[in-house]
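User: Earlier you gave me the apo prediction for this protein. Now I'd like the version with fe (ii) ion bound, so I can compare the two side by side. Same sequence as before, with the ligand SMILES added.
Assistant: Got it. Here's the input I'm using:
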Amino acid sequence: MHTNVDQIADRIYRISTCIPEVAPGGFTFNQFLVDAEEPLLYHTGMRSLFPLVREAVERVMPVERLRWIAFAHVEADECGAVNDFLGAAPHAQVAHGALGCQLSLNDLCDRPPRPMADGDVLDLGGAGLQRRVVEVPTPHVPHNWESHVFFEQETATLFCGDLVSQLGDGPAVTDGDLVDAAIAAEDLFGQTSLGPAVPATYRRLADLGPRTLAVMHGSSYSGDCPALLRTLADVYEQRYGCSPAAAASSAAASPQPQTLPAHAIPVG
Ligand SMILES: [Fe+2]
Ligand SMILES: [Fe+2]
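And here is the structure of the complex with fe (ii) ion:
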């Protein structure tokens, strides 16, 4: 197994390990390292990947420099090695949405995490390498109540976790059409918690105006990101039945319909 490191935006690095057994053509597990005065690692990988990911981080900077660790939600591929990294980087702290801290991370993390509210900004550095990431909760999208994403404002990079996942070991970043590949992965894994939150969340993320999507599984995307996210919102409505009308009819049949997450607070 080999771990690649590629720069996908200004001082934002993609660390990628393809595991062939997971899916036909393999399946990549990607972490993202933001080089700033207070460096951020977004995703840790599974515990079993820790030696590879740590070594990959070291190709860019000493691991002890890590100040922030974040991940889309609480699953092994997103955060299995969180305590390994907290051990290796003595000044590092997990930053996550307040809900995830309350539900899991206050207990799971070896040091207390920093809870973030919708729209909170994490300042990663000063004048020379300024980076600011905005907290955007995405409950249940694509899965897990505590899901969230970070949006890095200077490069307009959206760390979108499992959204736009693709099979295979493609290029680090592409501007090619990823819609069919994202549908193929969804059809194989059925990873998304299908409901009205899905298209609403994709459209909210499109409204942020990202220029790069830092994708956890598959290639990152550098084309028209808002258009891709809005197309996928339509796909989830039309192909996977996440439209408000479908939600209303299932609500009529079910005493406890899934509710939309709160999307009232604008961020940008
Ligand atoms: Fe996940
Ligand atoms: Fe994942």
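For your comparison, keep in mind: The chain has one domain: 3-250.
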